[in-house]
């Protein structure tokens, strides 16, 4: 009897399949030479089952809380062919909840994520802008370690 709720909670805790990846490119001017940065992002949705099922005649408090984050991978290539890579997560790009079991709401949650998130490339462009300082520091470090410096 307790195996079914335990199994349902384990399935609800598993991450959902990521959505279609987004891409964003920027060119960054640097004293050592321009660099081309490619950003790729994938949406990851986490589900958390809260509340409990109630016996007949009583209201249930079951609710599926979900949070979407964007996993970003940046690859920057300098004119000299040097590579600067970084991975980071932009947390909580969208969140919400639905009444009931997470496992029963997967498709509805995927629609909620898509409608609240909108165009994922907008979030990726924001992540790229926030990464600019780190990218410039990476390029500085690479330029200092280059032969002839």
Characterise the protein shown here:
This protein is α+β, with helices and mostly antiparallel strands. Helix content is 33%, strand content 38%. It is built from three helices and four strands. The chain has helices at residues 3-13, 106-117, 120-145, and strands at residues 22-28, 35-50, 63-78, 83-99. It is rod-shaped and about 70 Å long. Residues 1-18 have low confidence and may be disordered.
Main sheet strand line-up: 1-2-3-4
- N-end to C-end Cα span: 70 Å
User: Main β-sheet, in a few words?
Assistant: 4 strands, antiparallel
Number of distinct beta strands = 4
Global mean pLDDT: 82
* Class of secondary structure makeup: alpha+beta
Please tally the helical runs, counting DSSP H or I stretches of 4 or more residues. Answer: 3
Give a quick precis of the structure.
The chain is of the alpha+beta class. It has three helices and four strands; from the N terminus they run H-E-E-E-E-H-H. A four-stranded antiparallel sheet has the order 1-2-3-4.
């Amino acid at each position: 009897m307790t195996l079914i709720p335990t199994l349902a909670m384990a399935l609800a805790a598993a991450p959902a399949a990521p959505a279609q990846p987004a891409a964003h490119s920027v060119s960054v001017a640097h004293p050592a030479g321009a660099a081309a940065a490619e950003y790729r992002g994938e949406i990851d949705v986490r589900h958390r089952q809260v509340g409990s099922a109630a016996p007949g005649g009583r209201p249930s408090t079951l609710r599926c809380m979900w949070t979407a984050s964007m996993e970003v991978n940046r690859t920057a290539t300098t004119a000299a062919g040097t590579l600067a890579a970084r991975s980071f997560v932009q947390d909580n790009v969208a969140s919400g909840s639905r009444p009931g079991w997470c496992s029963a709401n997967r498709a509805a949650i995927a629609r909620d994520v898509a409608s609240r998130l909108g165009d994922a490339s907008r979030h990726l462009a924001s992540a790229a802008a926030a990464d600019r300082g780190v990218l410039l520091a990476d390029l500085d470090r690479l330029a200092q370690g280059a032969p002839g410096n």
